[in-house]
Amino acid sequence: MGKRFIISGGGTGGHIYPAIAIANELKAQFPDAEFLFVGAKDKMEMQKVPQAGYEIQGLWISGIHRKLTLQNAMFPVKLISSLMKSYSILRKFKPDVVIGTGGFASGAVLKVAAMLNIPTVIQEQNSFPGITNKLLAKKANVICVAYENLERFFPKNKIRFTGNPVRQDLIDVTSKKSEAISHFKLDANKKTLLILGGSLGARRLNQLIEKNLDFITGLGFQIIWQCGKHYLIDYSKYNEKENVQVTAFIDRMDLVYAAADIVISRSGASSVSELCIVGKPTIFIPSPNVSEDHQTKNAKAIVDKGGAVLIKESDLESEFNLVFEALVKDQGKQESLIENIKKLALPNATKDIVEEIKKLI
């Protein structure tokens, strides 16, 4: 009989893509396995997971807002509903292992799985774990992490240092440069700047690029600007500008990384792991609006080892132009960043996580 896996995680691309990467590797090793994803209704996983070829069921769950809202008042009701539906899903599907990559939906599923004595694996992407995974850690069998020194959050005997799963097509993007230039219709004689605001986009990053378009193109760059689906209506007009391409989302991340000479990015865990693999000179601008300021911690883990440049959002007005121009004009600095960030790459993360899952079967 084929193995059965439930994988849960979502809300953002940072939780969804690691989940899909793990599923793909499990499928490669267990071709007759059955998979079921569990996510949050109305979140992006409900589209992205079926697009990747997997079935998904949605729970009625959402995060807690910092302010007093009606959604917060509904949280206990949603939580009970999600726990009950998780119980029903698990009893019916009978998985061999349940894997959680973060988000409130994965919290409900892993909590019930642990109560039913089904083996569970947590995959923690960040250098500072979210509340869901911290609460689940005591009952989980294995916790796969991407950063060192997480013993203060998780039981030491359960931690496995694996790194974050990344798309396997990113392992060698250097060979795809000419294909990338053709795909994005770029000028092969110009440098390319890639802007990554995360799967949902980043308002402050978009404002920064809008303000500095002429400055950036004046330094000889063409721009691929991933602004996020919420912001496309505001920024798509810049597609009419020469040397500027604005898109809500990028499907061919392997090609866009191959095309990029410099990257400006938020520092969500998946983006950081991908940038280590592809080895590009990077300026991180962490979002200050995430729990425990974990994006800054993610970026600092790279910056402290000489692998990237960091600008705080609060310092953009005073620092961006100076830092960007200095990096553009310093080829030695660019080469140093490439060398150092590549040392931090963990290209076998997905396979290593799957090895831990196999031990539990």
UniProtKB/TrEMBL annotation:
Keyword annotations from UniProtKB, A to Z: Cell cycle, Cell division, Cell membrane, Cell shape, Cell wall biogenesis/degradation, Glycosyltransferase, Membrane, Peptidoglycan synthesis, Transferase
CDD domains xref list: GT28_MurG
GO molecular function: glycosyltransferase activity
Compartment list: Cell membrane
Catalytic reaction(s) noted: di-trans,octa-cis-undecaprenyl diphospho-N-acetyl-alpha-D-muramoyl-L-alanyl-D-glutamyl-meso-2,6-diaminopimeloyl-D-alanyl-D-alanine + UDP-N-acetyl-alpha-D-glucosamine = di-trans,octa-cis-undecaprenyl diphospho-[N-acetyl-alpha-D-glucosaminyl-(1->4)]-N-acetyl-alpha-D-muramoyl-L-alanyl-D-glutamyl-meso-2,6-diaminopimeloyl-D-alanyl-D-alanine + UDP + H(+)
EC nos: 2.4.1.227
Membrane topology term: Peripheral membrane protein
Residues reported to bind UDP-N-acetyl-alpha-D-glucosamine: T12, G13, G14, N126, R167, S199, I250, Q295
Record pathway: Cell wall biogenesis; peptidoglycan biosynthesis
Class of this enzyme: transferase
Domain Glycosyl transferase family 28 C-terminal span(s) in chain numbering: 192-354
InterPro entries: GlcNAc_MurG (IPR006009), Glyco_trans_28_C (IPR007235), GlycoTrans_28_N (IPR004276)
Domain Glycosyltransferase family 28 N-terminal, chain residue ranges per copy: 5-143
Major location (coarse): membrane
Family the entry assigns: Belongs to the glycosyltransferase 28 family. MurG subfamily.
Function comment: Cell wall formation. Catalyzes the transfer of a GlcNAc subunit on undecaprenyl-pyrophosphoryl-MurNAc-pentapeptide (lipid intermediate I) to form undecaprenyl-pyrophosphoryl-MurNAc-(pentapeptide)GlcNAc (lipid intermediate II).
HAMAP family per the UniProt record, alphabetical: MurG
NCBIfam families cross-referenced by the UniProt entry: murG
Protein name in UniProt: UDP-N-acetylglucosamine--N-acetylmuramyl-(pentapeptide) pyrophosphoryl-undecaprenol N-acetylglucosamine transferase
Originating gene: murG
